[in-house]
């Protein structure tokens, strides 16, 4: 259970058992096996609040508040990674320059634009969904996006030669942890949307593989920031594809 609570502590700011001050190195990787489960629990909490909001607020406002609550619950951790990644890509000429820029706490123009675009896409995609589908798609988006971080960590090399927190995850993430996270995300995809859920699971897997190759080319691997970007981009991918599928199937 220590690995589960470490994942909870790392991915959310919500109340829960805090980890020990001294974290055993092997727990960092082991905790990633629980990332999709954390996504599911977080999705259920958000849905419970959203279910109440839509009773007395217009749908547009409820959708906007749901996106806001997701940001708050994550502590904006993944959005910060996306902004830093986009700034590094925009202003760095080499992998070393990009990694150095990503360490700068200031957010540049491209970082700000990336936040506006990703949040706008999420809101528009969510707002386009019929009421009956919001809960399942929210759960699926949060589960698959967190699974994608496990996939990225397991497959890609760590980029920073001087080390960092991402190195602890990379070095201690085992095949068993990857299999558990993958099996859970695939099972839940089938439970929520049957064939179409498995199709979305496959799409996220392929998209994450493409991101991995891109990050290896631009940064020589992944960092904590690119993991955050991976999560945010895959959340948006699930919302977009689910919205498109529902639109086509309802025609």
What features would you describe in this structure?
With about 250 residues, this protein is mainly alpha-helical. Helices cover about 80% and strands about 0% of the residues. The protein has one domain. The chain is built from 11 helices and no strands. The longest helix has about 45 residues. It starts with a helix and ends with a helix. The relative contact order is 0.15.
Major beta-sheet overview: none
Number of helices: 11
**Low-pLDDT windows of residues:** none
Mean pLDDT: 92
Q: What is the succession of H and E elements?
A: HHHHHHHHHHH
Distance between the ends: 46 Å
Based on the structure, what is the oligomeric state of the protein chains?
Answer: single chain
Q: How many structural domains are formed by the residues?
A: 1
Counting helices, strands and paired strands, the structural category is mainly alpha
How many E strands?
A: 0
Shape category: globular
Helix content: over 70%
Q: For the CA atoms, what is the radius of gyration?
A: 18 Å
Give the DSSP E fraction (strand runs of 2 or more residues): under 5%
Quick recap of the structure?
This protein has 251 residues and is mainly alpha-helical. It has one domain (39-151, 165-250). The protein has helices at 2-11, 25-31, 35-56, 59-74, 77-91, 95-102, 109-128, 134-155, 165-172, 175-219, 224-250.
